[in-house]
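Subject: Alpha/beta fold hydrolase

B.,
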Amino acid sequence: MIRKPTPLFFEQGPHAVILLHAYSGSSNDMRLLARRLESENYTVLAPIFTGHATGDPADILTAGSPQQWWHDTQAAIQQLRDRGYQQIAIFGLSLGGLFATRALMEDPQLVGGGTIASPVIFRGQTNVPTAFIQMARETYRQAKIVGEEQDQKVAWLQDHLTAQLTAIQAFADTTATHLDRVTQPVFIAQGDADQMIDPRSGKWLAEAYPQDQVTFHEYAGAGHVLTVNSAHHALEQDLLTFLHLIFEK
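Prediction pasted inline below.
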């Protein structure tokens, strides 16, 4: 029996950090980073987007949507405020970065935040559709769904995936158009060997903000999921440095 991921909530100090996971990912994307922040006395919340980590990738397409995930993001912020946290920062990996950016835009009370390998400004290539189908096949294989049954399920996903990716793209484009409404300090991380999105994505986003507002880190030789790959130690340290700057001590 494979254990399904659950939201992470580590309560420590008065400064709280929300970590939003990637498309077709889960809070597991954020566990290493969350534990490192917890060890430095930060309270950390890593929710799971609706439709994700259920065991059936189809749920991402049927239960999930940019509007629903934006609602999930707002609910995470509210969850922390309901528990008395006032100093909150928000970051997201890939898809999660779109919602972290939108949150900074719409909620000036947030202290700061940013993106990790996130195509907020979308140009060039994306391997998201291919990766999604590969993930789906692996999920079905682990659930012993094989052969014709798996092929039918994957065919359904292929028929419906484009519509959701188009909706995500529209959400990203709207967000990118209004980056001037983000007034908080922004952290941007990007691997220069990213094979999921264009590795220049982080630089493009950094250039869209005033120079004194943004902290940009590029990780040599690192792929897409910076929170768990070869760059994760460096990312954790860079993020801690940024958090130390933005939170009132």
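The first strand starts at residue 8 and ends at 10.

T.
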